[in-house]
Every structure is written in structure tokens, then in C-alpha cells.
Design a protein that fits this description.
There is one protein chain. The chain is of the alpha+beta class and 192 residues long. It has one domain (27-189): Hypothetical protein (Archaeosine Trna-guanine Transglycosylase, Chain: A, domain 4). The chain is built from six helices and six strands. The chain has helices at 13-19, 39-46, 117-122, 130-133, 156-162, 178-189; strands at 32-37, 66-70, 83-88, 97-111, 138-155, 174-176. It has a six-stranded mixed beta sheet with strand order 2-5-4-3-1-6. The two termini are 30 Å apart.
Length: 192
């Protein structure tokens, strides 16, 4: 970027995306990740429901920075700055589709018993559900922002065709090459 007096300023991709939020710059050399989420959590955390609820709205869906909680094994895939695809699983009448994108801004492994109130506030999980996430005593908390709902959810069958599905069938977070990530997002924005 060049200022008015011809002084060039360098700005990191992370800072540029934050300044222009919500926006993600995607390119083939930038790896991303796909993360599973159940429909009830996706509706509340990502705002992906086709019909808004008349019930109490969870605070997390109103915040720019939100939190995704999962198994610590996903830490490598969810590093800071990683673009994220949120895959709504078929559990609980889910759509079996990628429904939204976002960007990881921090990931930390913490003891379930010491989960910070700020993370709980930014997530939609209640403490009693933590044991369903992982059997161990620790969880991975991933703070994310730049959430954008895809106009056209990308179904499991198409994800498989694009190479976004491996042997785990999207039961856990996994890294994706930049090429695959771009293809999935392009599919989600096609005809939009």
C-alpha cells in the first residue's frame, strides 16, 4: 500500500483481512481447513439457519469473534490465520454441506475445567456438552472471525468430487490444499 506522500506501507494478510472484514483472500498456495459442526450449533454460532428463531438468540452469533471447540488433535489444522470451511453434518437433520466460511485467529489447548469464560461466551456449547466433544480432559478452542454464510451450501457428494473428503468422512477437522479450498468456495458462491 502506498500513502499520499509516496511512502510504501507493508501490511500483513491477517491485518488486511481484519481491516476489510468480513473478507477472506483465497489463493492456491494458502491452505485452509474444513471443520464439522452439528446443525443446532451451526444455526446458533454461524447464523446459517434458513429461518431465524423466535427463541432467545445466543450472544455468540452476534459477536465478530466467535469460538469453535473441538478435540486437541485438530490443532495443526486450525492454526492462526487458517481459512475455515464449516461443514454442517447430517446429525440432527443437518444439511451434510459446507454452509459457511471464516478465519481462525487463535487456537489454544486448554483443560475443560479451566475453559475461560470469554471462550464459553463466544461459543454455543454448554459445559455439560464438553464431554461429548472429546473424552480427554483437554479441548482445543479456536477463535475465529470473518464469518460468511455461503449462498449455496456445498453438499457432501460435491465435496467428495472436489477432493475435500477423506477417510474420516468429515468427522474431525482436517487441512485442505488451497486449490480444493478455492474450488469449494467457488461452488458455494456460484450463481449467487
Amino acid at each position: 500500500m502506498t500513502k499520499a506522500k509516496g511512502v510504501t506501507i507493508l501490511i500483513s494478510l491477517t491485518n488486511l483481512e481484519s481491516l476489510l472484514s468480513p473478507v477472506l483472500f483465497l489463493f492456491q498456495s494458502r491452505y485452509g481447513a474444513i471443520v464439522p459442526i452439528q446443525r443446532s450449533f451451526a444455526d446458533e454460532l454461524l447464523g446459517t439457519s434458513d429461518q431465524q428463531s423466535f427463541l432467545e438468540i445466543r450472544e455468540a452469533s452476534l459477536l465478530n469473534e466467535r469460538a469453535y471447540i473441538c478435540t486437541p488433535r485438530a490443532a495443526k489444522a486450525l492454526e492462526r490465520g487458517t481459512p475455515l470451511l464449516f461443514y454442517e453434518s447430517s446429525t440432527g437433520k443437518g444439511r451434510s454441506s459446507v454452509v459457511a466460511v471464516g478465519r481462525s485467529i487463535a487456537s489454544d489447548i486448554v483443560l475443560k475445567s479451566e475453559l475461560p469464560a470469554s471462550i464459553v461466551r463466544r461459543s454455543v456449547l454448554e459445559e455439560k456438552l464438553l464431554d461429548q466433544i472429546t473424552v480427554g480432559d483437554r479441548v482445543l478452542t479456536t477463535r475465529f472471525d470473518n464469518v460468511m454464510r455461503l449462498p449455496n451450501p456445498v453438499p457432501f457428494k460435491k465435496l467428495k468430487t472436489l477432493g475435500a473428503v477423506d477417510g474420516t468422512n468429515l468427522r474431525t477437522a482436517r487441512p485442505l490444499s488451497g486449490n480444493i479450498f478455492v474450488d469449494v468456495v467457488a461452488e458455494g458462491w456460484s450463481d449467487a
